[in-house]
Amino acid sequence: MKGLLNHWFKKNKTEEIQEVEEKDSLSSQEEERKEDVQSAHEKWHHEVDALYTLLANYYGSDKLVLKATRLEAIPLIQSDTIQERTAGLLKLILDDPTDRPLPSEEEIPQLLMEIEDHLAELIARRAVEDRLDKAVADKMQERHEDYVKEIKSQLLKENSGPDNAQTLKKLAHIEKMNQVKLASSVSEVLRPQAVAEIIGQEIPMQFLLAKLATPYPQHIIIYGPPGVGKTSAARVALEEVKKNVNSPFAESAPFVEVDGTTLRWDPRDVTNPLLGSVHDPIYQGAKRDLAETGIPEPKLGLVSDAHGGILFIDEIGEMDPVLLNKLLKVLEDKRVSFESAYYDPNDPQVPLYIKKLFEEGAPADFVLIGATTRDPREINPALRSRCAEIYFNPLEPRDIQHIVSQAAQKLGANLVENVPEVISNYVFEGRKANTILTDAYGLSRYRHPEQPEVLVQVEEVYEVLRSARLTPYISHKAENHGEIGKILGLGVHGFVGSVIELEAIVFPGREGKGTIRFNETAGSMARDAVFNATAVIRSLTGEDLKDYDVHVNVVGGGNIDGPSAGCATTLAIYSALKNIPLRQDIAVTGEISIQGRVRPVGGIAEKIFGAKQAGVKTVLIPKENQADIPSGLQGIQVISIETFREALEYALF
């Protein structure tokens, strides 16, 4: 800029010299001095004009006028004197609104040079800023174009996605299917909704509620035969204890139900629906955004879903032993821990929730309720030690009848008076009883569609029973008379007790060469009981059974392997030997020793309920089993005995 001004200055100087030379009349020294002064003024005016022009180009004419107005420099700019014009130029360059003394002529050249330098600096700075602004604008434009492309791509994905005409057609078909509803499931309709609807389990239900409705709820194992309401009882119990002020369960406490037989898992912890697992980004494919950055993703299991509520595991005795041990660890810690070789705690890309799960684990504070039809001795001892144990009772015929009547009310069906009794003769499971009633209900609906009310007839129930190939589960009922060589014993399978018909017959044999025959399918321990019986009978009567042919039979040929039929077998042989009838309304259980003592056996509660179902009035049990008699027992007399002689007193007719 300085070179441009110098060039402009030299050019004007040449023109002035030429003008001076053309004036022939000016030859004196004074005239030359005046001409020099005039020439300097003209030069300054030209230079000031050039500087104003550069300022106008730098700021713009409009902005320059506005600035001059603000600084009150308009009169100075429009002045004819070089001092005022220079002063106006200083105001604009320095952005100075104050009124300063006008510069002298001697100061003007130096001021113009300083003004020129300052303006050159402004113009140079502007050039640099322009280049930077252009670079920034270019970069912003590039970023903007990339951003627009990304937005367009995202919109295309959202609008189109993975669907096409075929997939959308299938989606529409599924939506149409969802709109078609036949009816609610009959199991949902008949499922108990209140404690009063759990039939035949009043005392076990009371203990179940007592263990949950407390600030310190316990883990529980429920033992019992199938179809007696274990699952329904647990579900109803949770809803009931939510109302209790001492209960730790909130209104939103979950009830998570799972079948122990279906809980499969991978020992490598690739998958574990019960406890949860980690989806590694390479093999199992975590979420896309996590997989792309190599971050493992923990998946919570059912124990975390049940946090704050109840985890109910049906058939818990069928669980994998290793998985069960892992569950016991969770019960102790009340948390589930996760591990993965891909997890890097120092990776800043790891989401906070994943970091928290790996470092602290997932919450799993719940109450475990397990249900099983297995014998307690078959259940993991470590699990039993952590749980309270509740035994559900087998259902009696009157319980089945109550369940059938209750189900009929929910179905809106009327029953002929003896329909519940008929069904109770064929099943001892509440679930199965409801199934038979539902089938009979459907048969009646089909045959009489025009009737507004459904009436279930006995004939329709029998048709359902025949179709299902069912037979009465009680093959023999107690009778009110005496019979020689015949007695009712008691057995138990699982948690279901039943009566066993034992009969004996004695024939005179060759002295010392008699034989004793017994069912081969009855079992070795049952046969040993017969030999024990010979010793007891010989000590009581002096008769040696080696002088007789003795035949003992278990009616139906069932396997009663175990010592509990010993006392009953001895009674049958004694009755046949002495030709004395035995009561047929009494049932006997207990092991017999060679000294004639009645030893304790297992399954007392189940055997008593089985005797009740067969109409037995009196049950003889070992004295040492007296504590096993169910509380609140009604409708049957239970007598405890210590010796075979006592059994004779009650059993002889």
List its salient traits.
alpha/beta, seven-stranded mixed β-sheet, 48% helix
Brief account:
The protein has a 7-stranded mixed beta sheet with strand order 15-16-14-13-18-21-22. It has a 5-stranded parallel beta sheet with strand order 2-5-8-1-9. Strands 3-4 form a two-stranded antiparallel sheet. It is α/β, with parallel strands linked by helices.
The number of helical segments is 23
Class of secondary structure makeup: alpha/beta
Shape: rod-shaped
Radius of gyration: 53 Å
> Fraction of residues in helices?
40-55%
Neighbour order of strands in the largest sheet: 15-16-14-13-18-21-22
What does it look like?
With 653 residues, the protein is an alpha/beta fold. Helices cover 48% and strands 15% of the residues. The protein is built from 23 helices and 22 strands. The protein has a seven-stranded mixed β-sheet. Strands 2-5-8-1-9 form a five-stranded parallel β-sheet. Strands 3-4 form a two-stranded antiparallel ribbon. α20 links the parallel β15 and β16. The N terminus is likely disordered.
Question: What's the arrangement of secondary structure elements?
Answer:
Elements: H1 2-22, H2 29-59, H3 61-70, H4 74-78, H5 82-94, H6 108-159, H7 165-178, H8 186-190, H9 202-212, E1 219-223, H10 230-241, E2 255-259, E3 276-279, H11 288-292, E4 297-300, H12 302-305, E5 310-314, H13 321-333, E6 335-336, H14 352-360, E7 362-363, E8 367-372, H15 381-386, E9 387-391, H16 397-411, E10 413-415, H17 419-426, H18 430-447, E11 454-456, H19 458-467, E12 482-484, E13 486-493, E14 496-508, E15 516-518, H20 524-541, E16 548-554, H21 566-578, E17 581-583, E18 586-588, E19 591-592, E20 598-599, H22 604-613, E21 618-622, E22 637-641, H23 644-651
Helix pairs in contact: 1-2, 2-3, 2-5, 2-6, 5-6, 9-10, 16-17, 16-18, 17-19, 18-19, 20-21
